[in-house]
Each structure stands twice: as C-alpha cells, then as structure tokens.
Structure of Putative lipoprotein:
Amino acid sequence: MNLIQGNTAMNRTLVTIARPGGDPAIDLAYATVTGRADRWFLFDAAGGAPLRALRAESCLIEPECGDTVLIAAGGPNAISYVLAVLARAQRSGAALVLPGDVALHTDDGALRVEAASVDLKASRSLTMQAPDIALTGVRGEMKFQRVEAAIQQLHAGFGTISTVAQQVTSTVGRLIQRARDSVRFIDDTDETRAGRVRMQVEERMHVSARHATILAEGQVKIDADKIDLG
C-alpha cells in the first residue's frame, strides 16, 4: 500500500508499504476532479494519479469538478475508486448520494430530498415549523382520529367536494354564500331561528306544503297587483 505524506503544499511524496500476500499494492493519492463520463470521474495525471475512477460506495458525497478527492489505485488493470472528498470547490452545496437512487442535495442552507418515496415514522410526535409550507401532489390522503386547526385566513378553490359527517356544528360571525343553484334534501326537520328574516326573489316564489301556518303577534301585510285565495 502506498501512503501519501504531504504538507500544506499538497506534497505527493509516496511512501510504499508492503502488503502481505500476493495481491498488488494499493496506492493512495490526492487528485482534482476535472470531468465526468457516466459513472467515471476524470482526473489529471499529475503525481501518478489515475486518469479515471469510480466512486466508492463508502464515499457518500458526490464529487464535482474542482473537488480534491482521495483515490485508491490498485494497479494498471485494476479499477480505481474515489474513497472520500477532501475539499470542496463550491462550499455552498453538495450532493449526498445513497444506494437505491436516493440523494440529499444541499444548496445555500436549503435541503432537497430525491427518492421514489419518503416515509417518516415517529413513535411520539412529528413537528414541522416554517414561515412558508407548500404541499403539491396529484393525490392526497389524511387520516386522523382528532384534528385541531387554527387559521387566520383561508382561501381555497375546489372542483368537487363530497363530505359525509354524523354531526356538524359551526359558529360563524358572518356567513356569506353565493351559488348558481342550491338544492337541499332534509329528511326530518329544517328549523331556522333568527332575529329577522328577509327573502328577496326576482321572479317567482313557490311554497308547497300539506299544511301551512303563519302566525304573527303584530301585523301581517300582503301587497300585490292581484291576489288569488282559494
């Protein structure tokens, strides 16, 4: 095995250490990444460094152009491997590549996770805190036994809404609804309690009932151009 001993000037003096057995000796060398071709990383040939090498599975940080890396070379016909990234050319970001096509990307304090699926499991609690939170997806599903929400303002746009509930109780300071058509089906009782009720119909109002009763303690007024009774 060849071990690099160097100073701040990146001295490439190699000290050869014999390895027991018949396997060829392994050389360790510093190198600067100059390019990439598919899975192979390319380097300059200074100091006996190999021209190309693969990233070792233990080297989780993805090397980029300009990075200083540690290379293990096993001989003329052996595959060389990048063991570690020693110095980054761009310190603002990096890519942590894991087996299974999973990667963590950092860029100026931001973190991006790339994976086919992400599963978060916590035995006690999971907390998310941020000034802005955005969720985007094609299909969503939420299941809770109990939900408490406190929202100052809510702006929502829906295409179709279908809800099934055993009981709904709401307390609203002011309710304004606007609809093109409104149809309600109530099997039992529909009761409205209000201080005042005003209904304004532009064209025709039709009330049909088996029995109808109008009770007023004060005055009942009916005003029309024509009134038909009976």
